[in-house]
Amino acid sequence: MNRFVIRQSALLLLTAVIWGVAFVAQSVGMEYIGPFTFNAARNLIGALVLLPYIALQGRGVKKKAGADSAAGQPCRGREERTAAWRDKTLITGGICCGVLLFVAGNLQQIGILYTTVGKAGFITAMYIVLVPALGIFLKRRAGLRIWIAVMIAVGGLYLLCMTGGGFSVQKGDLFVLACAFAFSFHILTIDYFAPRVDGVRMACIQFFVCALLSAVCMFVFEKPELQQLLAAWLPVLYAGVLSCGVAYTLQIVGQRGMDPTVASLILSLESVISVIAGWLILGQELSMRERLGCVLMFAAIVLVQLPQKRAQKERTA
Hints:
Elements: H1 3-29, H2 35-70, H3 77-86, H4 88-112, H5 117-124, H6 127-134, H7 144-160, E1 162-163, E2 166-167, H8 171-193, H9 199-221, H10 226-231, H11 233-255, H12 260-267, H13 269-282, H14 288-305, H15 309-316
Antiparallel strand pairs: 1-2
């Protein structure tokens, strides 16, 4: 394993850790403010956190341009910085990712109102199974193993949603499951745009779009109050600075040049971390039946990411 793969894997692992703990921050934050208010605030903070870094990048370009000018070469620093923001691919990618993040983030935030941190983490991790399944529509083959993994995951979801001795799908479970579908499209979109644009700038645009859409819904469906927002400052700050500003940017940067299946497997560790964080910080525990459901879902996640022997033979041929 070369240094590049180790570095990218470390970035994605750090992303999973931050996201796993973020489930706790999201759950605590919902005690004070509504889901749209929470996501509007966290994404706005995430975007603002990235602006200084982008400005420093711009200074680097400016210094390089100054050096070129001193050497008698054309000075194109300002043009390069301006062109970077006017890139149509960058803008398109940022808007698409922002809209999908708005849908996924708010579905997840609403779902957390009606379910536990651990269940939300594991159901969200269904995107690891859904990504290759949805790849069929992108003309990517899905073998028998993928469908077996899907059935195992459905069985795990059944056990995870069992309450009171009978089958019960709670409102929060459905919201989080829909969130998993949205995150699946989000991952596929990032996989397409990440190699083509600057990852930090795309993340910044993504956060501004998500914050704007969440703010519109906030004023339509909620009654935000500054006092309540200040009461939730710690979870909002964690979710904004670390979960958004740092982790989502690390996801975009970390996925670049990585096999999407390997990247998805590393990111899926957020589900395990969410359960551990919910247990350690909030004292939330899962029953034996729910734990078995988690095991089955994680087994499906691992199964669908295992390398195929045929693919290995084709690569060595």
